[in-house]
């Protein structure tokens, strides 16, 4: 069996040492390696065990490499997801800032509406001025509904959820690396 010499080489032992391990003579092992004789059953069992242990070691090493590659890929995916969460949080924060600004503009518009009649001269009691003031009020009230506190709170909760998700991902990455 030519494979026996290959296993012997993989084990890094001489023909004499391998023969002693299998409990056969050196000449018997030589004839087995030349396919002129067969190994006794007990020697075959020892040979199988040696071969299995050699392959098990290489399989373990291969599995370790595969596991390390999988772990690295998982960390990369987690880091990508974390960056996405943080990006979404930044975008949502910008939306929230815009919403707050618009809300404040609406409040200011209502203040103008409330104070405008007092600023107008008494002779300006015409219909056009009243319609204009009513339009300002209506627009401000509609916009307040669109960018009111409820909408702002929803965006604030979304930002908090995204930041919590990013923090959880960081913990997962730290857990994978340790």
Give structural notes.
The chain has helices spanning 2-11, 15-22, 26-33, 41-119, 127-146, 149-177. 87% of the residues lie in helices and 0% in strands. It has 178 residues and is mainly α.
Main sheet summary: none
Envelope shape = rod-shaped
> What helical percentage do the residues reach?
over 70%
Mean pLDDT: 81
Order of helices and strands: HHHHHH
- Please, how many helices? 6
Please report the distance between the alpha carbons of the first and last residues: 46 Å
Structural class: mainly alpha
Q: What percent of residues are in strands?
A: under 5%
Radius of gyration: 40 Å
Residue stretches low in confidence (pLDDT < 50, at least 5 long) are none
User: How many strands in all?
Assistant: 0
Précis, in short:
It is built from six helices and no strands. The protein has helices at residues 2-11, 15-22, 26-33, 41-119, 127-146, 149-177.
Features:
mainly alpha, 6 helices, 178 residues, single chain
List the helices and strands and how they pair.
Blueprint: H1 2-11, H2 15-22, H3 26-33, H4 41-119, H5 127-146, H6 149-177
Helix pairs in contact: 1-4, 2-3, 4-5, 4-6
